[in-house]
Amino acid sequence: MATAAHSVLPELDAGAFARWRSGGGRVVDLLGEARELGPVAGFRLGDRQVVLVTGASQVQQVLAKSPDTYVKRGHRLKPLLGEGLLCAAGEQWRRQRKLLQSQFTGRGIKVYEPQIRAAVAAVAERWRAAAAAGEVREIDADLRYFSLDVIWRSLTAHPLDPETHRRLVSAGDGFAAIPAFAPATGDTAIDFRETNEHVDRVAERAIALAGETDEQPGVVRVLLQAAAELPEYTERLVRDELMTVVVAGYETTATALSWLFLLLDAHPEQRDLALAAGPAGSDGRSAAIRALIDETLRLYPVAWLMPRYAAAPDTLDGIPIEAGTTVLLSPYLTHRDPELWPDPEEFRPQRFLDAERRPAPGAYLPFGLGPRACLGAQFAVREMAMLLEEVLPAFRAEVREAPAGAGYGLTVHPDGPVRAVLHATGE
Fold first, then answer.
1. pTM summary value
2. Is there a domain that residue 3 lies in?
């Protein structure tokens, strides 16, 4: 019986890879070259085959339809987050996700809204004072503080204190040192002892503070109850899960909000359009603010590179994928594919308000897809929306100093501070 013919994997030639590496190029530039070869393309790192998947249907197949074929094999954050949910795999991951899932549903998030509102009010107060004084502020630092404050209040029912903030910022420097894809850059192992010391002390502080209140916040309560009843929830695993919530929660929000204010400075009409969509609290304004968030995450998805490992043979777009192949997915590149997104480089939030032109399955994945999609996605979007609903009508941020471009580490982030003057508009 005849068998179907297979397509050949389009690959960057060895010369292109060598030129990229000798020129000190960024990983995103190498992957951008590979994407030009098609929705499934590749290159070689020594004897290792690397396949980049950017087409919508192929992304859907890898992440949503075949998650047991394309699996996580370790994680770049494992030295810091141990066996936390982000780094766990297999049955262990399934048990851990099931335990925490109720905290991040729409209903579960409502429990945390008073804590989010308190963090929003603290930002608004600082910005009112800065606007009155004509002060130039690093608003990216304010937004990082806000996102950390939200997570800390949600975990402990206490506002973020200076010592915890200092430790978390220091730990964040350790996370920032991790490369996006070390095999391509040749980066060596990093000494995380100091970072882990900060992480350990923060976890201890969170548990101690949560124990001081009878109304213990949800995530901590769930983890401590699991530690009392389930032998696998050791003190170390509780620490890993707490820090996974902190790291995954704050970086997503802070980075996306920094990009959003940069984009609004470049496109001030989009702020005006969002505010004109309806009065405060209306469905129209809420939808317009959500569109601002969605479009920002399209251009700058925080998890811009997602490595997977082919645990079994498969076929993608007619191309055989051998077991053991490294498979890379890049929401950043998929979101900028002109075949999926008209005028992909333009900041156009209105594309998310057109119900008749929804993105194809696999074309939009700022939080991943399938069973391993980010558990905290709804939480992140909700806290961003609550902040914007408060500060967008009250302030206009005039950027005085913008970063030269983007940095591509574990996240795609503004590569430098965002300094701005805040003008009180007082809707």
1. 0.93
2. no
Give Cβ neighbours of residue 152 (< 8 Å, ≥ 6 apart).
Answer: 158, 159, 160, 164, 206, 246
374 is in an annotated binding site: yes
* Residue span of the structural domain in which 299 resides: 14-424
Both tokens of residue 220?
């901590």
Q: What is the dihedral of CA 211, 147, 395, 258, to 10 degrees?
A: 170
CATH number at residue 271: 1.10.630.10
pLDDT tens for 276-306 read 999 999 999 999 999 999 999 999 998 899 9
Residue 281: CB partners within 8 Å, gap ≥ 6? 389
Residue 309's φ and ψ, nearest 5 degrees, are: -130, 125
| Percent above pLDDT 70 for the chain | 94
- State the maximum Cα–Cα separation within the chain, in Å, rounded to a whole number: 80
Assess whether pLDDT exceeds 90 at residue 314. yes
Task: Look at residue 178 in the predicted model and tell me its pLDDT.
Answer: 72
